[in-house]
Amino acid sequence: MKQILISVSVIIIALVAFGKYQQYKRFHSTETKHIISKTIDLNYHNKAIVMNYYDAVEALNTYVSTQWNANKIDVIKPQKDNSLTKLSVAEYARKLAKVNYYESLLEQSNNLKAKGLSNEEIKLIEEKGMSFEAYQKSLAKNKIKSMFNPAYSIALGEKSAFVYEIQKLLTQKGHNIPVDGVFEKITSEAVKVFEEKNQLFADGKLDVITLDLLLQ
């Protein structure tokens, strides 16, 4: 009888110890800690954001640990539904959102730099709320605009890189013309049809308004 009681006591102690160990393991492991991303841009154009990110991660991890140790509240996988738990979980969500915001900025910057962009270009993309693809298109449009001289009328038979780009734009709009950089009658007619469709003065000659519509 005594041996049975001892065995039962040992089992109970082992179960309690295992439960405590599981709790300790949970709140002292990578499962409950937000790990610093390895793909963030440490040379981000705004150094304060990098520091804010590290501070936000530390604040998040400290909050998770403190809530468990002080209040026995698991804010990651809450098992209670009382008001204190709800408030704690809501605060955890706010802190996590802050971490995710900084992390997404820094990871995006790192990805853009891998594509060859500079800090200045990344800053411009963020300020304008543009995607990388939209930024690339913007660069292409600006390049074409820089080639255009509104005071000069392109003559038939003229060959240039600018005409080549215009022909590409016209084919993208559905016009079946050669893309050879030569401003022949077929290209002029395509410009004229495009102007007619867009209710512009249809003369088959490029002007600022026609070019802007082609670039849209």
What report would you give on this structure?
Helix content is 65%, strand content 0%. With 216 residues, it is mainly alpha-helical. It has two domains: 35-128; 132-214, PGBD-like superfamily/PGBD (Muramoyl-pentapeptide Carboxypeptidase, domain 1). Helix 2 packs antiparallel against helix 3 (83-114). The mean pLDDT is 88.
Layout: helices, strands, pairs:
Elements: H1 2-26, H2 47-71, H3 83-114, H4 119-128, H5 132-147, H6 161-172, H7 185-197, H8 208-214
Helix pairs in contact: 2-3
Keywords:
8 helices; Muramoyl-pentapeptide Carboxypeptidase, domain 1; mainly alpha; elongated; 0% strand; 216 residues; 2 domains
Assign an overall shape: elongated
Radius of gyration over all CA atoms, rounded: 32 Å
Helix/strand order: HHHHHHHH
Q: Number of helix segments?
A: 8
Mean pLDDT: 88
Taking pLDDT < 50 over at least 5 consecutive residues as the criterion, the unreliable ranges are: none
Percent in helix:
55-70%
Question: Helix- and strand-based class?
Answer: mainly alpha
Number of strands: 0
- How many domains? The number is 2
Question: Which band does the percent of strand residues land in?
Answer: under 5%
Termini distance?
90 Å
Summarize the main sheet: none
Short description:
This protein has 216 residues and is mainly alpha-helical.
